[in-house]
Amino acid sequence: MDKPVITGNTIAIPSDVEHLADVDLFIEGILRGWEVDESRIADIAISVSELVNNAICHGNKSTHDKKVSATIDRKGSLIVISVTDEGAGFSPENIENPIADDNLMKEVGRGIFIVKSLMDSVDFELTPTGSKVTIEKGV
User: What are all long-range contacts of 40-46, with beta carbons under 8 Å and residues at least 24 apart?
Assistant: First the structure.
């Protein structure tokens, strides 16, 4: 895969951070089409960007032949987005608290913390082919 592929409500990208903007445009475009409030779009876009970046860098280790996918759905007044990678997976319980004194000056480790603070729910799942993170936000 050399470029983003859009199929219905899913975008798949190669594991390269240069495609983060493609995912942002895709997600924000759908949300605007659903007439979602701009402040909620910002929260969702930040969260998806963090998750896709993590999937590229940590999940797939920026391996270009692996892909990251984001799927967006609307269930009534709830936006549901799943981000999947093809990596080995991780344990969310092992993520260090970024606001602990020992971690305040670290340059990494805040993505999941940010997502959890912006979304109504965050669910982590290890699949047979990688990791899947599903986020929900009421609109």
Answer: 40/79, 40/137, 40/139, 43/118, 43/119, 43/137, 44/79, 44/81, 44/118, 44/119, 44/135, 44/137, 46/114, 46/118
The pLDDT score that the predictor gives to residue 88 is 87
> Pick the residue with more confidence: 96 or 111?
111
Q: What is the pLDDT of residue 103?
A: 47
User: Considering the entire predicted model, what is its pTM?
Assistant: 0.90
Calculate the alpha carbon distances from 114 to 46, 107, 126 in Å. Answer: 8, 14, 21
* Cβ neighbours, 10 Å, residue 7: 9
And the tokens for 66?
């692996």
Q: Which CATH number fits domain 5-138: 2.60.40.1190, 3.40.50.800, 3.30.565.10, 3.40.50.1970?
A: 3.30.565.10
**What pLDDT is recorded for position 24?**
98
pLDDT, tens digit (0-9, with 9 covering 90-100), for 70-84: 999 999 999 999 999
Q: Evaluate whether 4 touches 52 at the Cβ level (below 8 Å).
A: no
